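Board notes, transcribed. Complex of a protein with guanosine-5'-triphosphate.
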Amino acid sequence: MRTSLFCFVGFQCRYKEDKNKPKRKMVPVKILILGSQKTGKTALCVRFMTKRFIGDYDNKKDVTYRCSRMVDQETVEVEILDIPCKENSVSLLESSILWADGFLLLYSITQRLSFLEIPGLKRLIDQTKKSLVVPTVLVGNKADLEIGREVTTEEGQKLAEDLRCSFKELSVAEAVLAVEAAVIQLIRMVLDQQRPLPDRRSYMLTVRHALTRKLTRSKTMQW
Ligand SMILES: Nc1nc2c(ncn2[C@@H]2O[C@H](COP(=O)(O)OP(=O)(O)OP(=O)(O)O)[C@@H](O)[C@H]2O)c(=O)[nH]1
């Protein structure tokens, strides 16, 4: 069963107050968080939504977390789907992957096995999406547990490069801002990919016109 948690924070409330202003469209961004068991997937979602770290999580069901955030002047309606690891059958994974726009791939720096499972998950994402440019952030969690470290930061960075992902090493338990930064970075990657092609084309045309004008002006000056 899929459950939804609604979380109304920050900008959404301020947005509602100003009734006279024309309402801007919300941009939906759907994120799927994947990783081995007990890597901190639910903890990360709860941290992002509520800023809290509770320490103990009920992970029996799929949960879709929802909130709205302001990202680069856009009001983004964020949905994060958290699937309990043991239910990860390939067909369930594939339908969740098709649903999502961007991916958080989580491993624990204290659990080498969780790191070794990342390439397989990324392969499944790329194959299901039929694309090699899928917005993805690789997150090495539990950086506060240095004493039990089994994966170095350099290994994380190297894997992210190989898999064409962004990379963050952080502690969901201790670093609320780092969690926020990781998710916002992924949202930006998704928004960038969703930007309609004409926008990108018109940007390129503007650049071309500016260059042509500059060239013409410098030629005129030479004469
Ligand atoms: N020390 C430390 N513990 C963490 C951190 N993040 C999560 N944990 C703990 O790791 C355990 C697992 O966290 P969950 O969020 O339940 O992990 P999960 O990946 O959702 O687990 P499954 O859904 O069962 O796969 C919990 O006891 C958390 O308190 C962290 O950054 N540091």
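Residues 6-17 have pLDDT under 50 and may be disordered. The chain has one domain: 27-220.
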